[in-house]
Amino acid sequence: MDNLKIDLGCGLRKKEGTLGIDFQAYPGVDYVLNIQTDPLPFPDKSVKYVHSSHFLEHIQNPINIFQEISRVCADGAQLEFWTPYGWSNPAFIFDHKLFYNEDHYLHLCVWYFDVWEKALNARWLLKEIIYVIDSSVLVELYRNQISLDFALKYYKGCVVEFGVVIEVHHDYKGENFQPIRTFALARSSKRYPVQSTDNSFNSIEIEQAINWFTATEHERVRFHTQNLQLELEQLQSLPTDTRAKIEQLQIQLQHHQTELQQSRDLINAMQSSKFWQLRNGWFKFKKLVGKK
Questions:
Q1: pTM across the whole model
Q2: Residue-by-residue DSSP string for 160-224
Q3: Is 239 helix (H, G, I), strand (E, B) or coil?
Q4: What is the model's pLDDT at position 291?
């Protein structure tokens, strides 16, 4: 009895090719037991794959389950856990006890792996973090030119669900490493890498940020003017042909901005004219008569 594949808390949707485990005897459940308190009915190091989908968030403390997983898993076994993302509305629906995000697994596998290796009786290696993002959200982020890395850090509601892939090792001697991060439009669709943005900064930038957020409106205008002057000095240090191209683009931009402002002025003038007011009154009158 080895090389087993199991699905914890499978419910009615057991993953194909696995042995289903649940506390209720749903169709397809192979082992009915209380996963929180009962030991898994498998020999030590007999399981090569553990799947769990939208089960762990219903458990207040999963550590006992994780310890049992370590016991039954063979060396190099793969874990695939899926839960609602902690920074999304579905994570907070009724009967959810924990709200999972990256930190739960980074804490176990990366940041404090030495502590958790003793608690779990195995080393868990976090290989991949997967974010499932609805296509409409992805397009909206693109339209607003917001990087996915930034959105994942600071926005809520971007991720539908997220999953992790973990390897279990009983005598791991290798180096610690960071997991890869990927995103997909559906759990089973193609995955793409999440491009990390540069988070480096220095003491000057910290001081500039503090000055900006504590400045008055007048001071912010002055800061903006100083930044523009600095950018101008940097432009002047560029090659002549590059500066000429930039100046040409700036002239075109100013021309378009002027046309845009002229259009806005024309619209404002029309809307304030007597003709426009009579026109709006006529349409309101027609609408009122139509209702009657």
A1: 0.76
A2: SEEEEEEEEESS--S---PPEEEEESSTTS--EEPPPP-----HHHHHHHHHHHT--HHHHHHHH
A3: coil
A4: 53
